[in-house]
Write a structure and sequence with these properties.
disordered C terminus, 27 strands, 865 residues, alpha/beta, 9-stranded mixed sheet
Amino acid sequence: MFSPIKLIDIEISQPIPTVDGLTDYGWLQGLVRLHGVPIGWVTLAIVNHQCSADVIRQQILEQYRDQIYQQLLCNQLITGLPQKLQVEDCLNLPAPEYQGILPRVTVAICSRDRPSDLKNCLESLCQLDYPDLDLLVIDNAPSSDATQDLVQNYPTVRYVREPRPGRDWASNRAILEAQGDVIAYTDDDTVVDRHWVKALAQVFAENPDVMAVTGLVVPSELETDAQILFERNGGFGRGFRRQWWRVGRGQTMHWTQMGTGNLGTGANMAYRRNVFEKIGYFDPALDVGTVTNGAGDLEMFFRVLKEGHTLVYEPRSLVRHRHRRDYAQLRKQLAHNGSVYAFWVRSAIVYPETTLPLIRLGLSWLWSGHVRPLITSLFSPSRFPRDLIVAQLWGCLTSLDTYPKSQKIAAEIAETYGDHRLPRGSVAATIAECADQITTDKIAVRSLDVAHPLVPLTDVTDAAKVRVFVMHQGSPVGFVEIDNDYQPISVMRLATAIAEKLTGKLVTFDRPEILTVLDPAPSVQLPITVQLPISQSVSIVIGTYDRPQDLRQCLQGLVAQKSPRSLEILVVDNHPTSGLTAQIAAEFPTVRLICEPRQGVAYARNAGILASQGDIIVTIDDDVSLPADWLEKLIAPLARADVMAVTGNILPLELNTQSQQIFEQYGNGGLGRGFERFEVNGDWFERSWMYAVPTWELGGTANAAFRGSIFRDPTIGLMDEALGPGMPSGVGEDIYLFYKILKAGHTIVYEATAYVWHTHRRDMPALRRQLYNYSKGFVAYHLTTILHDRDFRPISTLLIFLPLHYLKRFLLWLKGDRFYPLSLMALEILGNLAGPWSLARSYQRVSRDGRFSTTFKPQSTLKPS
């Protein structure tokens, strides 16, 4: 379903190299970092098994120029900004080290019978860059001594066996065993970044009010469909922007905040140890190892906020998670996501005032997250399988009654082993008392000059907000407003707020299009050109039906192509009994002649495709003329691993007659699709659940190239013989092939520079037949996607939008725009109405004549030399 994705880190403070050896991958996904700080992802197509440094640099600049400037400014604000920031001068300067006292941190890994995963995690923990660590493995109800034996190989790691089964029992045991003031949790299937602990510890050190920190979780690999599907479903990542979460004094928690899934995940979370004395331990009736199967982390996030504390999402605190590689494991994991309903049931019991908001949240989440996607999947195909949507929905419904059951089991475990939970504190009552004393939300006003090092704002604890007026060398620059909720404001928070809002006023862009290290060449860049490797051979297929003069002109253009590669030309005679095509083919010794007596363009092209020996298969019509450099321009985008088809521009060879001029106006440009290159992919295919996929906007097989392997792919296959010229359906074989390629998740590129000249119909009767067939084929194509692909989006197109299209054109005609005859518009409508019957007749003919299979090889007609 998906091509594997190669994951790499791209440190932009260092020269960016070309990435080679990407033979087995369809995409390159790079985590952009600046002195270790994650900026964002760039996803890049792989060209000729590599991704060049130039392409990587350009993509980073296009996506993240502003974020890079912000991060550079943020770094410099901490130490002071004597003059406006010169980007090129400070790209190599990392953020200054935090000079305060960092807390002792206990890192807890709660594991159960996964020693191989745990080994990788422990190896990364031993590489942490942090001065005061306490490493702790909690072995949760193990079935063997394998974990204990493994930990003995790491002298700096303490081992504790927790007999009570359940993730939250293990998390609570870590609290009791911890020696640090901060407890950081990660999973045994993660690999932590060496700066992970330092990033989260700095947040705690600078902000005394912060009681919990979550961090960025990125995938360690995207090799299988299951891993890619999990990441497409949201994964564990929560973005690259630092966020502060707190329920203000005197305010109630809004129902949209109660989900807490957007705050982080248990694979990367940390707490002050003393917060558990105030709000209680993890609830052992939740999370993995219980019948609820999860949500212990989300419930604790909820409790932190509900009890009036601050939670910070810090993306600099980074871990890498190995997603489930197996599809069955993924389905099970997604079903367990329904455990959030168990957490909400628990919260409604403990905090009765949240019952109605939680019901509203649960219904909203059920509809938008599961029921609506399920309904949408019934109307339009999607690369996210329906059985996964059903698994998630089923998990939600079955989780509603799991918490009471799990409570009973937890009570039995506590009776057997003892209960190590602490009683809940009374912080909520204290907050309520403070709230009663608040009469108005004061906004404090402060000013600072960024020419000097920033200092924390500690004298704002009597204000709900602070408006900070920013000066530079005595001149006002602007202001930022920070919701501090009666808490001090740290240097990092202050710098971040200023950088996000005032970068444009504090950064000098001497060369805004180029950053020194990203692109050391100050000259203007030339466009990056791509060429398909010469080793890739090409077969060109021309289907023809008794048009000898057009065919001769087309073949003359083909044999004159300037191409260094192995090239074969196949002419498929769709009316061999006439003998006209064979005479023309005999004039060109390098041309292979294929005979296909079954009438229809799809039959002819399929015969040529199956006889082809090239890696790339090109299709053209016999009535086109070709410039000498056409072929190489057309096939160049296929150097990218994700591209499976390329279409080119089709220009009119002449506009001498009325019919030719009318046709060029038809569809806003005849057969051409414009003069700008564009591309579409599976996301474009899935962009709407209501509108049909407009593959007719992509071009046609009168000028197209395909990777030969797609025709052997069972999800794509050959052209549908029931569609296309020569069949009652009229047209549609090409746009339906495009549909199947996109449905499979591949990319199609429209390459405007690869143009051909087309001879439009010269007389009105021929034009009428052509437009009538186009109109029949338009409906036949949509009916095919409904019947074959269970894609019901075209229903609205056929019943609503198509009639509205004709109504709009008719109104324009009434207003005086009468170049396009009303009689032709009526003919199009008749063709649309004839579409269903024409498709049925095509099915009858195909049933009689048979379809091609991908193993059939037509016989070539060998010409004498």
